[in-house]
Amino acid sequence: MFQGCSRTVEEMLKVIKDIRGEGQLSEDFYASSCPNLESIVSQQVSTKFSQTFVTVPATLRLFFHDCFVEGCDASVLISSPNGDAEKDAQDNLSLAGDGFDTVIKAKQAVETQCLAGGPSWEVELGRRDGLISQASRVAGNLPEPDFNLVQLNTMFARNGLTQLDMIALSGAHTLGFSHCDRFANRIYSSPIDPTLDPGYAQQLMQACPRNVDPSIAINMDPETPRTFDNVYYQNLIAGKGCSLRIKCSKPIPIPNQL
Fold this sequence. Notes:
Layout (H helix, E strand, L loop, with lengths): L1 H13 L22 H15 L3 H13 L29 H17 L35 H10 L4 H8 L6 E3 L4 H4 L10 H10 L9 E3 L11 H7 L21
Antiparallel strand pairs: 1-2
Helix pairs in contact: 1-3, 2-4, 3-4
């Protein structure tokens, strides 16, 4: 199962591979300097996946958060002694450590053998690591749980992505988790958010009582949380999406291929 998840992660990352990329990119950028780069990275990533399943959603989310702020330049990895780097922004504090660890281990393995770095999926390579990483530049560049359809489409369009791309990328939540404070307003409002299935709302309340520790998180796919499938979309239609409430005047068509 982990091997399948690894490949699916690579396929989904392709969707955002061209977001604000800088420089001349090519799929064979390291053909001369590190011809075995892809196999080296693939081995490290597969090993990490086999150690902990959290690596799958963590790596996907880390990549997304990096690309939507400053572009796909690894600036989310930069640390600041002043606590004001991208990774210190409120929206990034919940990024799981396993995502960072995946990138670090892959980078170390490549540097040991080639003194180079790069991703493991077929993508135009050659991006340089970012030199700017500021927490203040994160706000407004990542989608929030209460965004409506217009806001979501606008944000994704700003990154060269269509509504279909946005819907496809949201499918990554089939393996992800959400902290209770991201949807507490939906279950503790009066009345309870009517877009939620009543039974599911009760499940959320049991898992996330009032004033619960903000570090507590639940699966975003309550049906098949450890399988990369399309049940996430089925859950949304059934009112079982804890962190996504798209407010629009008509239903959003979910393509059959998803």
